[in-house]
């Protein structure tokens, strides 16, 4: 579904991503892990058009994405979340999702249109909010949502684009145990019929969700495989997991 070929990103001579070849199977959950500075977020930004590669290619289902702008990448079926939530605090979750739904129609981003015109998206917005567990919170200001529910709303916004590939940048970062568990179950539900790529530091989350894991170090692929294989790899133990984590 998504692949990179010899992907490189340099910043003033520093290679943050250094010749990465990545193949992500359709319908899989693929995790990118590695120590801080390994190049995970830079790779995400390349895949979604927020950065342009210095060289190499990015291909989605046979279509070249290399150098395309973020809005072009999104319209071709790649949606993402971010490490930091970015919502309109005074708008409700329902209003957020309606705006996201209209973005892929001729209405575009003309969010000043009347409520009557936005009304065509109301039913689908409710369905998406129910899907991410926010049905009961649809009509309160987003700024008053708990942190975990804000992340769930961001997932609903990504799903509103009806993506073929969903990229999640540290979806459980900053969450307590209860929110982490809820988010893992949510990702399990919404992965049906989609390809998911996620950057995640919580290895229990990776173990519970990922079909395939790519470990990055210094911008390069260190090792790749199912979690049960990579967690025992001595290179992974020394580079990222640590002895105590590798035993669990």
Model description:
The chain is α/β, with parallel strands linked by helices. The chain folds into two domains: 1-77 and 165-248, P-loop containing nucleotide triphosphate hydrolases (Rossmann fold); 87-162, no CATH class. 35% of the residues lie in helices and 24% in strands. The strands form two sheets. A six-stranded mixed sheet has the order 6-7-8-3-9-10, sandwiched between helices. Strands 2-1-4-5 form a four-stranded antiparallel sheet, with helices on one face. Helix 3 runs parallel beside helix 6. The protein is globular. It starts with a strand and ends with a helix.
Question: Summary?
Answer:
With about 250 residues, this protein is α/β, with parallel strands linked by helices. Helix content is about 35%, strand content about 25%.
Portion of residues within helices: 25-40%
Assign the structural class, choosing from mainly alpha, mainly beta, alpha/beta, alpha+beta, or little secondary structure.
alpha/beta
CATH homologous superfamily grouping of the largest domain: P-loop containing nucleotide triphosphate hydrolases
| Strand count | 10
**Number of helix segments?**
11
């Amino acid at each position: 579904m998504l692949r990179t070929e010899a992907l490189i990103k340099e910043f003033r001579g520093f290679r943050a991503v250094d010749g990465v070849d990545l193949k992500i199977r359709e319908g899989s959950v693929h995790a990118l892990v590695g120590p801080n500075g390994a190049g995970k977020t830079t790779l995400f930004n390349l895949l979604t058009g927020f950065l342009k590669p210095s060289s190499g290619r990015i291909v989605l289902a046979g279509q070249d994405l290399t150098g395309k702008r973020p809005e072009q990448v999104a319209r071709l079926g790649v949606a993402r979340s971010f490490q930091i939530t970015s919502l309109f605090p005074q708008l409700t979750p329902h209003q957020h999702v309606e705006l996201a739904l209209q973005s892929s129609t001729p209405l575009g981003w003309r969010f000043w249109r009347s409520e009557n015109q936005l009304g065509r998206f109301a039913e689908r917005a409710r369905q998406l909010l129910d899907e991410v567990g926010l049905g009961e919170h649809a009509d309160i200001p987003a700024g008053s949502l708990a942190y975990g529910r804000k992340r769930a709303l961001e997932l609903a916004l990504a799903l509103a684009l009806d993506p073929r590939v969903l990229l999640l940048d540290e979806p459980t970062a900053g969450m307590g145990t209860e929110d982490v568990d809820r988010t893992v179950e949510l990702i399990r539900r919404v992965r049906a019929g989609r390809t998911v790529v996620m950057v995640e530091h919580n290895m229990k989350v990776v173990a519970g969700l990922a079909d395939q894991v790519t470990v990055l170090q210094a911008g390069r692929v260190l090792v790749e495989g199912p979690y049960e294989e990579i967690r025992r790899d001595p290179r992974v133990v020394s580079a990222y997991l640590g002895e105590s984590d590798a035993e669990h």
